[in-house]
Write a sequence for this structure.
């Protein structure tokens, strides 16, 4: 056992989880937590609640729940606040979104009808398919930031929470290539002063959170802490950050299958991914400029996993196509198809077909919970800036400049579990295993 550098004590204080965006994902997360508090369900899909970590040697048979290994906030201490550009409360949103049954909604109606969003910061050029009726009347970015900072303080008071984390769960904003005006903290400050048009609402929520010392995660593809300017601010303010875009369905499967192909040195000539989706997220993504933002986060994963620069014969000519089609009859029940063209021994071609009939928000909700609890843990450890060990949860994970972010789900999981072991003062596990065989396999 290693001595933990800093022994973290369990916390009994309340933790506010604040979500810009009170939509299908955030309300499914909140309703799920309330159902769990009542013992009315199981935390299926949540690493923090059901996940385990093996400690020490295999022969020791020590496997513990993650939530017993590290002192995470308890679900009974969570409280929720949100911003939205529509004025519906969480129960109205749940009824409209059609994710949970009326029976489940009824069980949490009392708690979730209390979750009423504060008015959001809106830019109608960046979210074009939603008719906003609940927005702040601020005219300048600096004014918007001040209003958001005040909201954060008010939320903490109203929810009687000592700590808070922010997880952005709002609509996808139209794609903007990284702009020079936002590249460093100094240039970002100037852009804020001049009320620059490149600044998107997600960035304002992030800036406000960091200035308030609140850990920040981005569950969407929108620009925010992926920008070096905000990473600089996070380090300066001593705040942990994570993002971006949840890795919940099709990309999660992609980051499982691509490593398997690479492990067996099977070649890839094409990967055609398409989806039909009928929820409001799908409606917003029907705007080509918003889809472009999603395409960027969905398309990037293969390159870093397959490493065509190391395996040019196998992966230098991959046709990777991704599309999402808005198809209202399906609601939140997204259907994804993947056609994967691979080749094997002597170059002979083969195909893999994948058909994932999923539920978008059911997959996403536990990730929001895990991200909130791990970010809070990072904050209590005094960790700041990019939390690469949380890359497991994201489509486009962040890494320090100069490092390539890891996309392989199982390497990400190993990173996550080893980080938790180290936090708890345990040794990381390499899975080497020669020592079990003694003289049969002497270490050379
Ligand atoms: N599996 C998944 O569901 C999944 C996976 C990865 C990422 N995401 C992302 O999560 C986000 C939320 O998805 P959803 O299904 O809940 O969408 P949703 O449309 O149900 O909810 C988004 C909410 O954000 C609000 N909003 C828009 N602009 C806002 C602003 N400027 N300030 C505050 N609120 C604003 C909208 O009014 C809406 O209520 C999307 O960006 C989506 O792409 C979802």
């Amino acid at each position: 056992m290693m001595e933990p550098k800093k022994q973290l004590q369990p916390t009994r204080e309340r933790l506010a989880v604040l979500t810009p965006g009170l939509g299908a994902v955030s309300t499914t997360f909140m309703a799920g937590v309330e159902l769990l508090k009542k013992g009315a369900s199981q935390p299926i899909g949540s690493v923090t609640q059901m996940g385990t970590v093996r400690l020490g040697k295999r022969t020791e048979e020590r496997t513990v729940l993650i939530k017993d290994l590290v002192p995470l906030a308890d679900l009974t201490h969570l409280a929720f606040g949100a911003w939205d550009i529509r004025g519906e409360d969480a129960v109205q949103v749940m009824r409209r979104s059609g994710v949970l049954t009326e029976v489940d909604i009824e069980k949490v109606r009392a708690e979730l009808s209390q979750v009423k969003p504060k008015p959001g910061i809106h830019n109608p050029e960046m979210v074009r398919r939603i008719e906003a009726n609940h927005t702040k009347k601020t005219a300048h970015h600096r004014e918007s930031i001040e209003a958001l900072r005040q909201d954060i303080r008010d939320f903490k008071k109203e929810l009687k929470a000592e700590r808070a984390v922010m997880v952005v769960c709002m609509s996808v904003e139209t794609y903007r290539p990284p702009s020079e005006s936002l590249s460093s903290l100094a240039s970002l400050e100037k852009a804020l002063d001049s009320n620059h048009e490149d600044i998107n609402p997600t960035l304002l929520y992030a800036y406000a959170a960091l200035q308030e010392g609140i850990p920040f995660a981005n569950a969407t593809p929108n620009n925010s802490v992926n920008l070096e300017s905000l990473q600089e601010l996070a380090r300066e303010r001593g705040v942990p950050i994570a993002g971006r875009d949840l890795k919940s369905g099709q990309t999660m499967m992609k980051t499982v299958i691509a490593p398997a192909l690479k492990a067996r040195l099977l070649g890839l000539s094409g990967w055609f991914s398409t989806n039909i989706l009928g929820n409001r997220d799908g409606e917003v993504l029907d705007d080509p400029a918003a889809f472009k933002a999603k395409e960027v986060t969905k398309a990037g994963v293969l390159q870093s996993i397959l490493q065509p620069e190391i395996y040019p014969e196998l992966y230098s000519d991959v046709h990777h196509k991704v599309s999402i089609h808005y198809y209202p009859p399906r609601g939140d029940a997204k259907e994804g198809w993947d056609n994967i063209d691979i080749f094997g021994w002597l170059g002979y071609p083969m195909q893999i077909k994948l058909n994932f009939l999923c539920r978008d928000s059911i997959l996403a909700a536990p990730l929001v919970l895990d991200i909130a609890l791990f970010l809070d843990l990072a904050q209590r450890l005094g960790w700041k800036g990019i939390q690469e060990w949380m890359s497991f949860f994201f489509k486009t994970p962040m890494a320090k400049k100069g490092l390539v972010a890891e996309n392989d789900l199982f390497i990400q999981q190993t990173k996550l579990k080893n980080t938790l072991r180290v936090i708890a003062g345990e040794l990381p596990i390499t899975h080497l295993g020669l020592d079990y065989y003694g003289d049969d396999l002497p270490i050379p």
About this structure: The domain at 250-357 is CATH 3.30.360.10 (Dihydrodipicolinate Reductase; domain 2). The pocket of nicotinamide-adenine-dinucleotide is lined by residues 20-25, 83-86, 97, 120-122, 127, 130, 169-172, 201, 219-220, 245-246, 248-249, 279-281, 284, 360-361, 363-364 (CB under 6 Å).
